[in-house]
Design a protein that fits this description.
alpha/beta, Oxidized Rhodanese, domain 1, 2 domains, five-stranded parallel beta sheet, four-stranded parallel beta sheet, 10 helices, 11 strands, about 15% strand
């Protein structure tokens, strides 16, 4: 029986447990990347399968039938330990982990550095696609990891709830916008998801103590609860993962700025908070 690994694991550890019958490896890379190289045995999930795709907030959680179809095709079982990785430093992998929290799955890990670390550090790869027989899946959703619009609005009155905006500084202050209105949720703090990665170590996360210091610098302290978002809850998949790894109580606002910034009456700040 596979002993439950840590939330964040290294390639060396994963290579040792390849082939374990209780392991399910999920690749959330671009299809073109998966077709060229992937970890042996990894099943592919198209990132588009993790979102509803319905404008104006296409990053919202899909409906339960879409989720059941997705988990059926990857051979899901609640007892499996799922290891997930991507090719961009953790955004889509973190979004997948958030989805696992939504379906109540308890055994999972993120491969630190994803396919970049795995391949560049010469761990085994394959190119043939992996298909598994579909299984019957009946999901029950747990929305405690999800923040909806009304909950985000209510959090504005809570001094101990911090809104972590994972977008770029330009999006945060409102000089770059992808919605009707630019800016940020009042009181939100900004730490760009890209600044949490160590580009000198194949897109691994920065060390957790360093990330904790960076969060403290922007005002997120131990004991705070966190709501994190970006434009579509893709980039904030990574910040959700980081907050979990550091022991914070965290929810993700999957409507994100594509919902907030396209509504006519949500409060908006521009410039620095």
């Amino acid at each position: 029986m596979l002993q439950s690994p840590e939330l964040i694991i290294e390639p060396e550890y994963l290579e040792k447990i390849l082939g374990d019958e209780n392991l399910l490896i999920v690749d959330v890379c671009k299809a073109s990347t998966y077709e060229q190289i992937h970890i042996p045995g990894a099943v592919h999930v198209n990132p588009a399968e993790l979102v509803s795709g319905i404008p104006p907030a296409p990053g919202k959680l899909p409906d339960i039938s879409q989720l059941e179809l997705l988990f059926s095709k990857i051979g899901y079982h609640p007892d499996k330990h799922i290891v997930v990785y991507d090719d961009e430093g953790g955004g889509w992998a973190g979004r997948f982990i958030w989805t696992l929290d939504i379906i109540g799955h308890q055994h999972y890990s993120y491969l630190n550095g994803g396919i970049h670390a795995w391949y560049k550090e010469e761990h085994p790869v394959e190119s043939d696609p992996v298909f598994v027989p579909p299984v019957e899946v009946n999901l029950t959703l747990d929305m405690s990891a999800r923040a909806e619009l009304v909950q985000v609005l209510a959090s504005l009155e809570d001094d101990h709830c911090k809104i972590w905006d994972a977008r770029s500084y330009e999006e945060y202050v409102g000089t770059k916008q992808s919605s009707t209105r630019g800016g940020h949720i009042p009181g939100a703090v900004n730490l760009d998801w890209l600044d949490t990665m160590d580009k000198s170590r194949n897109l691994r996360l920065l060390p957790l103590p360093r990330l904790k210091e960076m969060m403290a610098t922007i005002g997120i302290q131990e004991g705070d609860t966190i709501i994190t978002h970006c434009q579509t809850h893709h980039r904030s998949g990574l910040t959700y993962l980081i907050a979990k790894a550091l022991g914070f109580s965290v929810r993700a606002y999957d409507g994100s700025w594509s919902e907030w910034g396209n509504l006519p009456d949500t409060p908006v700040e521009t410039g620095e908070s």
